[in-house]
C-alpha cells in the first residue's frame, strides 16, 4: 500500500502548552484509522493539521506526496457540529460543494444517486429542522462524499446519536469508505466505534506522541456478536487508562 499521510517530527503548542511532541505517523492510502485518547490530548489538533487548518510549530505534514500548507480540495472534513445551514434544503446542502467548485455537469443526477444511497431521496426538499438527528448526520456525510475526496476526516461522527442510529451510521461509513477506497481518519471517544470502524487504531499517548495498533475486528460482519470484539475493546480500554 502507498504511504498517503506522513507526519514527520511534528510539534504543536497552544501558547506555552505543548500538545504534540515529535509525532511521527504514516497512514496508508485507502486505510481506515481511528484516533482515540483522552480529552485535550491532541486528537482534533492532528485532524486540523492534516486538513491544513493549522500549521505545525515544527516538522512537516504531507498528504499524497505534497506538504500541507493550506486546505486541499481533495480532502473532505465532517465536523462534529455538522455545519448544516437552516436555509438550505437537503438537496441544496449536498450539492453545495460541487457548485462551489463549478462542477455543474450531471449535478442533479450525482446528488440524487448519493441521496438514494443514504436513504434520503424522500427528504431532498426538507430543511435541517425537519430531519431527525440520524438524517441530519447522513446529509452531512453525503455532502462530505459528493466531491469524491481521496481523504475523509471526521471529528466524532456519531457522538450525538442514540445507540441504534449510531450503529446504522457506522455501517454506512464503512460501506462508503470501502466503496470509494478513500483514506479515512476519524476521532472518537467511543472504544466500540474505534474497534468497529478502525482498520488501524491510533492511540494518543500522555507525552504527546501517537502509538498505532492493528485491529482484527475491522469490518467483520456482526462483530458485536463475537466475544473477541469485546476482548479487543477491553484491551484498548486498558491501554487508554495506562495513558491517563
UniProtKB/TrEMBL annotation:
Residues annotated as domain ABC transporter: 5-231
InterPro entries listed in its UniProt record: AAA+_ATPase (IPR003593), ABC_SmlMolc_Importer (IPR050093), ABC_transporter-like_ATP-bd (IPR003439), ABC_transporter-like_CS (IPR017871), P-loop_NTPase (IPR027417)
Keyword field contains Transport: yes
Keyword Nucleotide-binding: yes
One MF term in the entry's GO annotations: ATP binding
Membrane-spanning residues: none
Keyword list, A-Z: ATP-binding, Nucleotide-binding, Transport
The protein's name: ABC-type nitrate/sulfonate/bicarbonate transport system, ATPase component
Amino acid at each position: 500500500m502507498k504511504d498517503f499521510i506522513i507526519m514527520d517530527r511534528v510539534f504543536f503548542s497552544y501558547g506555552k502548552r505543548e500538545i504534540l511532541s515529535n509525532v511521527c505517523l504514516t497512514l496508508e492510502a485507502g486505510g481506515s484509522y481511528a484516533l482515540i485518547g483522552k480529552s485535550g490530548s491532541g486528537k482534533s489538533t492532528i485532524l486540523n493539521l492534516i486538513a491544513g487548518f493549522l500549521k505545525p510549530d515544527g516538522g512537516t505534514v504531507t498528504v499524497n506526496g505534497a506538504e500541507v500548507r493550506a486546505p486541499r480540495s481533495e480532502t473532505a472534513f465532517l465536523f462534529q457540529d455538522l455545519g448544516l445551514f437552516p436555509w438550505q434544503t437537503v438537496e441544496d446542502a449536498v450539492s453545495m460543494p460541487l457548485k462551489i467548485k463549478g462542477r455543474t455537469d450531471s449535478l442533479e443526477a450525482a446528488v440524487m444517486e448519493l441521496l438514494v444511497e443514504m436513504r434520503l431521496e424522500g427528504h431532498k426538499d426538507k430543511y435541517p429542522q425537519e430531519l431527525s438527528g440520524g438524517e441530519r448526520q447522513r446529509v452531512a456525510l453525503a455532502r462530505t462524499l459528493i466531491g469524491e475526496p481521496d481523504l475523509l476526516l471526521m471529528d466524532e461522527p456519531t457522538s450525538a446519536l442514540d445507540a441504534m442510529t449510531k450503529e446504522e451510521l457506522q455501517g454506512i461509513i464503512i460501506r462508503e469508505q470501502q466503496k470509494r477506497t478513500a483514506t479515512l481518519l476519524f476521532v472518537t471517544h467511543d472504544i466500540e466505534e474505534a474497534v468497529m470502524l478502525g482498520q488501524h487504531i491510533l492511540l494518543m499517548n500522555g507525552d504527546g506522541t501517537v502509538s498505532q495498533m492493528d485491529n482484527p475486528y475491522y469490518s467483520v460482519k456482526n462483530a458485536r456478536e463475537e466475544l473477541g470484539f469485546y476482548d479487543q475493546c477491553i484491551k484498548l480500554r486498558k491501554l487508554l487508562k495506562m495513558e491517563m
